[in-house]
Amino acid sequence: MGNQEEKKMSEKHRKILEAAIDTFAEKGYAATSTNEIAKKAGVAEGTIFRHYKTKKELLLSIVSPTVAKFVAPHFVKSFSKEVLEGEYDSYEEFLRKLAYNRYEFIKQNFPILKIFIQEVAFHEEFQKPYFNLFKDVILPNFTKVVVHFQDKGELKKLPPETIIRFTISTIAGTIFTQRFLDQKQDFNQELEEAISFLMDGLSPGQK
To answer: The HTH tetR-type domain covers which part of the protein (predicted)?
Structure first.
């Protein structure tokens, strides 16, 4: 009996989290009420407050543990394994793999990533775990790729961190603006143009 009660509760709990993710992603944190979340989850508002004292606590529980436990490690492991640890003949080939791999990832995880992006700028407590994850895991592997192609003479001798920043902001910016703005545009073509744009800017050019 106890087990069944627990199961029922965890099912309700899951529904609350799913409803919160959907509603926060759709309307933003500030415009969402716990009452709306409760309606969407099919539970009484009081049920939410049995799990979370405040709306902010509910948001923190979504963005921190959920992203940290499920999305972030998946992001880091799959990104390292599928992209950063691969072998490439050129930085352009690497960029193509990076761009299409992350596009698929963002498509699959868009609602929670949208919440993360909306809220991470405003809540300092969200920021540290992700910055540490980036600094400890992604940055060293990404740096190896950049240095490798700098040594081959394919990339300008800029600081690797600068090349990484330009690469991430261009690829991520192209993907996210397409998701938020004009989804009718031929996205593959836009991604290819972003790759060409990066290569034009990062290649050493003729001496």
So the answer is: 10-70
